[in-house]
């Protein structure tokens, strides 16, 4: 299912109003995440999804999964609340992979119809981005975040337990290679289409932390405009791995900012987050 209307949507909306893409929006603009996308097509080793969680603040969790109609109601309630004057952005960031869930496109279509002034954004693993890019454009999506953790399929094989691609469940380097190819192609095509593209990279000590500058150069060449280096949340198969320290993260960001602007105020939000950040 795809959205109706002409391509291009709100791709020209001011990036400075998006608190997840620009420091200029930090502390001034509000956003609401709509948890309409529970299913996922890859298994990240650091991801533990929960659909009935009220007390954890991290990606992949929500108090509950909602329908597109409930999402529209939630947006309208937010617009009528104290945060309404500050609300600039609706995002779909899970708790699974937005592009693998039909409800994502229905939700975007409803927002486009009823509240076209709001910036629409998606956070994705990128596997389906080349395939579904035209649908996102028709839904007026102007900002996309792709989580890309490595350029090396051998490293990717240690991060991703499997990748579901065209009806097959792929493991090891084969799955990681297909994921990487689609991520890089999706970033390039989205940037060429006029979207603002941010890349999220989870820094995993001893695994991908020595190649962050190489990754920054590559995604910049593909058209990404900002890089968000995020510390590992040690859970899943990485439960025993010590996350990078704040000092180490500062060093990584300082080295990468010579290549791409860095986002340093990311809070690694829940799939149902709302507020000013």
TrEMBL record:
Cofactor(s) required, per the database record? [4Fe-4S] cluster
Gene3D superfamilies per the UniProt record, alphabetical: Aldolase class I (3.20.20.70)
Q: Which InterPro entries match?
A: Aldolase_TIM (IPR013785), Elp3/MiaA/NifB-like_rSAM (IPR006638), rSAM (IPR007197), rSAM_sf (IPR058240)
Output the PANTHER family linked to this UniProt entry.
FEMO COFACTOR BIOSYNTHESIS PROTEIN NIFB, FEMO COFACTOR BIOSYNTHESIS PROTEIN NIFB-RELATED
Q: Which domain of life is it from?
A: Bacteria
Keyword Lipid metabolism recorded: no
Named from the GO MF annotations, one term is: metal ion binding
Q: Which SMART domains match?
A: Elp3
Q: In which pathway does it act?
A: Cofactor biosynthesis; Fe-Mo cofactor biosynthesis
Q: What is this protein called?
A: FeMo cofactor biosynthesis protein NifB
Report the sequence similarity comment from the record. Answer: Belongs to the radical SAM superfamily. NifB family.
Which keywords appear in this protein's UniProt record, sorted alphabetically? 4Fe-4S, Iron, Iron-sulfur, Lyase, Metal-binding, Nitrogen fixation, S-adenosyl-L-methionine
What the protein does comes down to: Involved in the biosynthesis of the iron-molybdenum cofactor (FeMo-co or M-cluster) found in the dinitrogenase enzyme of the nitrogenase complex in nitrogen-fixing microorganisms. NifB catalyzes the crucial step of radical SAM-dependent carbide insertion that occurs concomitant with the insertion of a 9th sulfur and the rearrangement/coupling of two [4Fe-4S] clusters into a [8Fe-9S-C] cluster, the precursor to the M-cluster.
What organism does the UniProt record list as the source? Answer: Heliobacterium chlorum
């Amino acid at each position: 299912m795809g959205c109706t209307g002409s391509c291009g949507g709100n791709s020209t909306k001011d990036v400075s109003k998006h608190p997840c893409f620009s420091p200029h929006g930090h502390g001034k603009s509000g956003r609401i995440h709509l948890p309409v996308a529970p299913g996922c097509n890859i298994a990240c080793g650091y991801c533990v999804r929960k659909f009935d969680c009220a007390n954890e603040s991290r990606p992949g969790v929500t108090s509950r999964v909602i329908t597109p109609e409930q999402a529209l109601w939630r947006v309208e309630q937010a617009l009528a609340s104290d945060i309404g004057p500050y609300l600039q952005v609706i995002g779909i960031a899970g708790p699974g992979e937005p592009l693998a869930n039909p409800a994502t496109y229905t939700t975007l279509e409803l927002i486009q119809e009823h509240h076209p002034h709001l910036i629409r954004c998606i956070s994705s693993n990128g596997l389906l981005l080349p395939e579904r890019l035209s649908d996102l454009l028709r839904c007026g999506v102007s900002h996309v975040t792709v989580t890309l953790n490595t350029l090396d399929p051998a490293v990717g094989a240690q991060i991703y337990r499997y990748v579901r691609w065209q009806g097959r469940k792929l493991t090891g380097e084969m799955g990681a290679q297909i994921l990487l190819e689609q991520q890089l192609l999706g970033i390039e095509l989205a940037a060429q289409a006029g979207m603002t593209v941010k890349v999220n990279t989870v820094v995993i000590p001893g695994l991908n932390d020595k190649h962050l500058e190489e990754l920054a150069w590559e995604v910049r060449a593909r058209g990404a405009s900002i890089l968000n280096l995020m510390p590992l949340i040690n859970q899943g198969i990485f439960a025993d791995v010590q996350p990078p320290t704040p000092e180490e993260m500062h060093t990584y960001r300082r080295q990468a900012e010579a290549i791409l602007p860095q986002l340093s105020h990311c809070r690694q939000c829940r799939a149902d987050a709302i507020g000013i950040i």
